[in-house]
Amino acid sequence: MSRIQINKTSGTGYSKVIALDGYVSESIDPALKDLIFLRVSQLNGCNYCVDAHAIDLLGDGVAQRKVLAVAAWHHSEFFTPRERVALEFAEALTRMTSAGVPDELWARAADTFGEKELGDLVLAVGLINLWNRVGVAALLQPEAPLEPSTEG
C-alpha cells in the first residue's frame, strides 16, 4: 500500500513529468535508458523502480546476466564503452556533490554522446531521480513476487 497517489493528488504536475518521460523515451535508446534507470534506481533504493526497469531491460532483449550485472557494472565485461560512460555519468549526477560532475567525466561523456544526446542524458538522469524519490516517498512496491521456479 502506498502513502500517496501522486497522479491523483498532484495531477497537473504528474502529467508534466509523464510528458518529460515520453520525451526521454523517444530521445534515448530504450536499452541504454533502462540501464541508466535501473542503476540510478539501485543507488536510490527504489524497489518499485528497480523491479520495473529490470523487467523493461529483459523486454528490450537484454540478457538476464547483463541485467543482474548492472549493480556491479564497474567489474563486469558485459557493458560496451558507451554504456560504461553512461552508467558512470548517471552515477556521478545522482551522487553529485557541490563540485558537480567532474570535468574529465563530462568531457568523456560529451565526446561519447555529443551535445544534444548528453543534454537528453542529463534530463533522463534527473527524471529517474525524481521518479525514485516519488516511489520511495510513496512506499511503492512491485507486484507480489513470482513463485520460485521449480524447474531445473
UniProtKB/TrEMBL annotation:
<dbReference type="InterPro" id="IPR003779">
    <property type="entry name" value="CMD-like"/>
</dbReference>
<dbReference type="Pfam" id="PF02627">
    <property type="entry name" value="CMD"/>
</dbReference>
<dbReference type="InterPro" id="IPR004675">
    <property type="entry name" value="AhpD_core"/>
</dbReference>
<feature type="domain" description="Carboxymuconolactone decarboxylase-like">
    <location>
        <begin position="24"/>
        <end position="92"/>
    </location>
</feature>
<protein>
    <submittedName>
        <fullName>Carboxymuconolactone decarboxylase family protein</fullName>
    </submittedName>
</protein>
<dbReference type="GO" id="GO:0051920">
    <property type="term" value="F:peroxiredoxin activity"/>
</dbReference>
<dbReference type="InterPro" id="IPR029032">
    <property type="entry name" value="AhpD-like"/>
</dbReference>
